[in-house]
Amino acid sequence: MTASIVWRSVLYVPGDKSRAIEKARGLGADAVILDLEDAVAPEAKAQARENVRLALRAGGWRVPVLVRVNGLGTEHEHADREMALLSGAAGLVLPKTEDARAVAALSLGLPLWAMIETPAGVLNAAAIAAVPGVAGLLVGANDLARALRTGPHPERLPLLHALSAVVLAARAAGKVPLDAVFNDITDGEGLARECAQGRMLGFAGKTVIHPGQIAAANAAYGVTAAQADEARALLGAWETARAEGKSVATYRGSLVEQMHVDAARDNLTLWAQQTQPESTS
């Protein structure tokens, strides 16, 4: 599943907000996380679980729907996982993941998305990403910053090592790395800046907490028509050189190597994925 879809924007939706869940169906995010954990108060956990069950069973979703369950060792973990498994979730998001062995022991037969939001999680990210069945890693920067005792910074300097560690772990294992949420839903400029930074660091997309943040994430992590045209032109130059028996290809005065060809093909794949008609799941 992870290789066949785009993960530019992944929207968190509180499980106790049934109206918000219904609206999420058509907001344009590439995936949705129905949240049973931090976004839901303890007294609302049971109702949130039922809301999510009904939404999943109703079907009609055009994007993957993941469920963030309550963590290992909590009183809600088993009921959450059983509901998600029986109701057709596309994957489970595991909060505060720190132990690769505990993840491997789950053996649920459903894609697992591990949240890296503690110092131990960062240090064990490579082992967690390598577990069969783990589809991707998500950064939980709010909890991580609190655990590290860092202060806020517009360029996230205190977290750069941790962010890169998550990307390295995910990419080394062939998994999907997703960047953390941006908290200020009124700061469009800050969101755009952080999206650009996340893509530069190597993330595949961004988790978002408000519908108004989806477009910025899609733009930052997507491919434009102009970029797709540029990729086709570079590949054309490469293929022409090869057909002519040349050992070296150039495009716009620059040497074209295999890495440039691979990058161009990646862009065209992403372009095709983000522009193909949505299928109903």
TrEMBL record:
Biological process per Gene Ontology, one example term: oxaloacetate metabolic process
Ranges for domain HpcH/HpaI aldolase/citrate lyase: 8-211
Record's keyword terms, sorted: Magnesium, Metal-binding
Residues given in the record as Mg(2+) binding sites: E117, D143
SUPFAM superfamilies: Phosphoenolpyruvate/pyruvate domain
Pfam families referenced in this protein's UniProt entry, alphabetically: HpcH_HpaI
Cofactor: Mg(2+)
Binding site for substrate: R68, E117
Annotated InterPro entries: Aldolase/citrate-lyase_domain, Citrate_lyase_beta/mcl1/mcl2, Pyrv/PenolPyrv_kinase-like_dom, Pyrv_kinase-like_dom_sf
GO molecular function: catalytic activity; magnesium ion binding
The keyword Metal-binding belongs to this UniProt entry's keyword annotation: yes
Keyword presence, Metal-binding: yes
PANTHER family noted in UniProt: CITRATE LYASE SUBUNIT BETA (PTHR32308:SF10), LYASE BETA SUBUNIT, PUTATIVE (AFU_ORTHOLOGUE AFUA_4G13030)-RELATED (PTHR32308)
Protein name from the UniProt record: Malyl-CoA thiolesterase
Organism: Deinococcus puniceus
